[in-house]
Amino acid sequence: MTALFALATSLLWGLADFGGGLLTRRMPALTVVAVSQSVAASVLGMVVLATGAWSEAGPRLWLAFAAGLASPIALLSFYKALALGPMGVVSPLATLSVAVPVGVALVLGERPGLLQVAGAAVAVTGVVLAGGPQLRGAPVQRRAILLTLVAALGFGTVFALVAEASTTVTGLFLALFVQRVTNVVVGGTALGAAVRRGAPALPAGGFPWRSLPALAFVGLADVAANGTYALAARHGPVTVAAVLASLYPVVTALAARGFLSERLRATQAAGAGLALIGTLLLATG
Fold this sequence. Notes:
- The protein contains 13 helices and no strands.
- It has helices spanning 2-24, 29-51, 61-84, 87-93, 99-107, 114-131, 134-137, 142-164, 169-196, 212-235, 238-245, 248-260, 266-284.
């Protein structure tokens, strides 16, 4: 179950990142974050009411609140980096986020087996190779690299906090709702401050209503990925769940290849293969 939920996390995050990166090329990143997270918060609010998850309120919700503070910073940085591109470079670098939850798990006493360590090393190497070769063929701004590193630290922090924010499924719904409401408040405040400084909140033609379904998908896929990651971390070793969940850049790179015709070089294809091998090692270890 750990491998299944963690791989679902990679798929959801990979598609959400691809969609978020595309949307940020059409409208301000803060607007993408604020609108997409508002949709996710609205849906989660209805789920919380329907399941009676309010009864699960407790001290652990402070962890969800902290994740909600870190998440908008990570999302904003990552979407801006993806907009600067190329996606095949930015997305794999974000796998550095895995260092945070793995480090926390090791400090707390979790000890993966030798096969799992080998699988993690192979998988992470494969993800990096899946995008790294573009460093030679496409210009990469230093700002994009810096933003990606900030995003990686933020994502890793969210990984670690969400995994500890609840102990039950209904509690997870409530924790994700608190996280998303915090996201909206932080993102909305930042958007308002940017508008007061003269930055546009919308494209020149006004709000692109045709993009609303895509914005909704990005927000819902992101929150679903947080949920599946929390379930993965609960059902098995965090060191395994975090590494498998960090394979999402491969999904983003493949989506960019399929929809944007970004070239997938031989080394990138080999990297995707290594990521698959690492996944198998982790799942069987």
